[in-house]
Every structure is written in C-alpha cells, then in structure tokens.
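Dear Dr. H.,

I hope your travels went smoothly. While you were away I took the liberty of generating a structure for the chain from your last submission, since the lab meeting agenda had it listed for discussion. I wanted you to have the full record in hand beforehand rather than looking at slides cold. The sequence, exactly as received, is reproduced here:
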Amino acid sequence: MVSVPAIAVDGIAASRKRIPPFALFQPASVTEALELLAAWPAAVLHAGGIDLANRMKAGLVAPAVIALDRIGEMKGVVRCRNSVNIGAAVTHWQIEHDSVVKSCLPAVAAYVAGLGNVRVRVQGTIGGNIMAAEPGYEILALLAALDANLHFARRSDGTRYAVEARGFQPAISAAADILLMISLPLHPTDLKWTREMRPNLGIVASLNRDGDSIRSGYGAVTGQVTAGSRLGITQSLSQREIAAADRHERAGSMTETTIQVTMKVTVNGDSRVVEIPANLLLVDLLRDRLGLRGTKVACDQGACGACTVLVDGLPMTSCLTFAFAMDCKSIVTIEGVSSADGALDSVQQAFHDAGVPQCGFCTPGMVLLAKALLDRAEEPDAIAIDDWLTANICRCSGYQVFRRALGCAEKPAS
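The corresponding predicted structure, in token form, is as follows:
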C-alpha cells in the first residue's frame, strides 16, 4: 500500500476542509443497509451524487454515511410486461443513454438529457434526485406526469411497498425508508415540457389524445414542494392552450474519529492503493495527497467546473465527490493528458492554436470536458458542443474560442 502524505493546506475554499468526520458503510444488499440503519438511526444515505457533500459543507452533521452504490438491486434498467423499471441508483446519464429507455420511453431520455449539465447528469442518480426533496429538482415532476410508482423498503421491518409519484412528498411520505426502484408504465402518452421559466418553474405534462384532440392530461410543476395536478380539460384543446397546474435534518453528534478507507484507484494510468479518511473529497485526494495541483478549486459548490476530472472517461465534479467513491475506478487529471515526453494532446494543441488560455484557471477542466465529448462524438454538432460547454464556466474569453478549438480538434491532422 502506498503511503500518501498530506500536503499543507492553504486557505482556498476552506469549507470543503470542514466536512465533519463520519463512519462510512458500503453495504452490498438492501438487507444489510436496513441493518445498518437500525444500528445507526441518525445515518444519512448516499446514492452516489453530489448533494450530500454540498450539504455537509453547509453544516449537515451525520455520525455515519451509508453508501448505496454497491447494491445490485438498486441498479440497472429492466423492461417488464407493462413497465420500465429503473433502479434508484441509476444515474441520469445512464437513463439518457440506456437502450431500453430510448426504445420504450424516448421522451423520458430526451427530458433527462436536459437535467442540469453533463457533470450533474453523470453523477446524479434518479433516486437521489427524488429523495433530496429540493423543490427545483425536476425528476419527481416527470414521474408524476407519467403516473410512475416508487418502490421502497421500510426502514422499520424491511417490508416492500409502492407509492404513487403523484402527490409524493419525500420529506414527509418516506423520509426514513430506502427508495429501491421507479416503475414507469408503458401506456401511450404524449409528454410535453418547457423549461423556459427555469430556474423558478419547470412544467411537464402527459397528454391523453383522441386522434388529434387532447381529452385529458396530468401536469406537474417544479419549483414547489409538491408536484402535480390534473389538467382541467373539459373540451378538446390545442397544445398552445395546455397549462400545467399547481403543484436533512442535522443528525446526532458526529463520531470522534473518521473511519479510514482503503481503496484501489488508477490515477493517470498509475495503479495505487491508498488509505484515506472517509470524509475526504476527490479534489483533496488529488491536490493535497497526490500533489496533482492542475485540478483547480474555485466555486467549491460544483457550479464552475474548474475541478473537473475524468472518471472512467466521464467528467465529474471533484469538489463535491467523496474520494471513497473512486474505489476501483480510473481517474484522469490534466497532468495525465499530455504524453510522457511532454507533447501536447490534440485537444490541448487545439486550445493553444485557438487562443483559449487567458487566466488559465478554467482551462484544465475545459480540456478534460472537451476530451470526454470528443471521445463520444468525433464530430459533435453545435448543439452538442454548446450543451457540454454549459457545464463549465469561463469568465475571461466567452465561449467562441472554445467552440473554435473544438472545431479544430474534431478532425486530427492527417
């Protein structure tokens, strides 16, 4: 095992250094997770996204974190006779690109593709989005419109039960239970939505048609505590006349010591075994423990993208990602992009030729974001480029130079 010394910490973005210690558990089954909840009633559940780190930075204290990402029952997308079942630990990215969803519920894949930015979609899970109880989140409104069912395991006795997404309030209805799966019915419906009023409101509606006429429907609004209301349709309406209607606690005292986590990780092609505190964030593992200072810290809230690194080829927000989640994964930082002899990667060269770098602070994250995009689409169109560029912020140059650089990098020199 490699001994990883800690490098002296400066005062930048100090909030991430103040995440309280906690015990970490990574159960492999729902039964094990329920047993842990019985032993640690004030523990918080972690579905794999970035919300928990942000809440802990803001003051949430928990004696233990139970990570659910190793529970097979909560993963995967399966088509059944009358529904598509999505595990609560499935990410938005996986839903967006899943062949079953795209085939059976293409509107759902299209809707999810507009959730947040690509970094948010890569890490955020459908279950975490539902149970976070944030009014601005949009998944619950979608599920309400589609008349989906949410499947839980009851904390007290393990009983399995289902509730309708319509009218579900996570802070009240099932805050103490474990969300296992979401079941989306396959009955035909016409899904419409608009995000023109975001971030305050988003509207999604499922419409039941009789030929070209709309006979009934159900609409839901994001931006409020509850989601959903039947559309008051008393006569056939045109689509333009459709209107959608209205619509964690600070746990006990923290543990005195942080459980150390031993994990295997590959960083820039080098495999290593490291022992780290459970509350260590990925950005601090890279910068303070491994000395990879090319990964920057700016907003410290997951908004700017300066801390972007690639994990198994996808862009992730390292300032809000717990390092323990990197077990058996492959990480690439900006230091791992150029070749061993120092020659620039084709994306780096394209950025240089287009005159992208100014202050340079956002550049490492932008390079890695661009590499992930070009690995998936050799010639991305303008819509795809703009969609990915919205994930990271540049305050110097605007985005035309990045578009120009991506245009140059699309076709390697012959």
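Two observations you may find useful: The chain is about 25% helix and 20% strand. Residues 337-409 form a domain with the DNA polymerase; domain 1 fold (CATH 1.10.150.120).

With kind regards,
E. W.
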